[in-house]
């Protein structure tokens, strides 16, 4: 699978490239935001590793422009450890983030986890509940016959809920189902993805298809319109 690495630091590009190539990924690199947009359109990567702190066109701007036309998975690689920056990145449509300094092994694991969510097999070709239909192999979501573009994480989150629509799932259960049992993903990260998912479903006429059971967790609404 092809990974686009975007960073203005040549040493970091080389480090990430080497780690991913050793993990049998094909690597394409870009040195700035504008080059990233060009490569993303031309190379059609399976995932983008994107630095935030670049001059002129930063990672947030690049992510925003890519999300206008594509749901390609995006992993932010950032020196910013501030929670607000992380949440903003997720709200712009990023699937995950790794904070510098980082372990190359952790980065490869995060990349594989994201790709598994976006391309992983399922026992069913599609899942449905009320107005929501998920075509698993094609990674397509329909709400009331309207296609709803979802990131790989949003798709995995919705699939986890639709598979057991009557079951209330806690945040811990959802985090384990999507990111793995040993994940350090916070509740706030999950909430950001859930908020984005609900907003997209609502715009397609799927208001309140996901309901909150206060003090417990979330589930699909039992009698969706």
Main sheet: strands, sense, barrel: 5 strands, parallel
Overall strand count? 11
Shape descriptor reads: globular
Averaged pLDDT: 86
Task: Note the gap between the termini.
Answer: 40 Å
Question: Percent of residues in beta strands?
Answer: 15-25%
Q: How big is the Rg?
A: 17 Å
* Tally of contiguous helical segments: 8
SS-derived structural category? alpha/beta
Provide structural commentary.
It is a single chain. The protein is 43% helix and 21% strand. It is of the alpha/beta class and 225 residues long. The strands form three sheets. The protein has a five-stranded parallel β-sheet with strand order 2-1-3-4-5, with helices on both faces. A hairpin with a 4-residue loop joins β7 and β8.
Essential attributes:
225 residues; five-stranded parallel β-sheet; 11 strands; single chain; alpha/beta; 43% helix; four-stranded antiparallel β-sheet; 8 helices
């Amino acid at each position: 699978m092809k990974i686009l690495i975007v960073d203005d630091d040549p040493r970091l590009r080389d480090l990430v490239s080497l780690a991913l190539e050793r993990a049998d990924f094909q690597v394409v690199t870009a040195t700035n935001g504008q080059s990233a947009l060009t490569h993303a359109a031309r190379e059609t990567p399976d995932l983008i590793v994107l630095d935030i702190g670049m001059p002129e066109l930063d990672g947030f701007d690049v992510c925003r422009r890519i999300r206008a036309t594509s749901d390609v998975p995006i992993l932010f690689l950032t020196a910013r450890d501030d929670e607000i920056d992380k949440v903003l990145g997720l709200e712009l449509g990023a699937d995950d983030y790794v904070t510098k300094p980082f372990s190359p092994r952790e980065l490869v694991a995060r990349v594989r986890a994201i790709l598994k969510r976006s391309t992983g097999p399922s026992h069913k070709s599609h899942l449905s509940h009320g107005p929501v239909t998920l075509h698993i192999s094609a990674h397509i979501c329909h709400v009331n016959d309207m296609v709803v573009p979802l990131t790989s994480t949003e798709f995995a989150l919705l699939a986890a809920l639709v598979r057991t629509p009557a079951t209330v799932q806690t945040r811990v259960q959802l985090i384990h189902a999507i990111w793995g049992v040993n994940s350090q993903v916070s509740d706030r990260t999950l909430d950001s993805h859930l908020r984005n998912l609900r907003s997209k479903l609502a715009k397609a006429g799927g208001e309140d298809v996901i309901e909150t059971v206060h003090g417990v967790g979330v589930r699909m609404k039992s009698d969706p319109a």
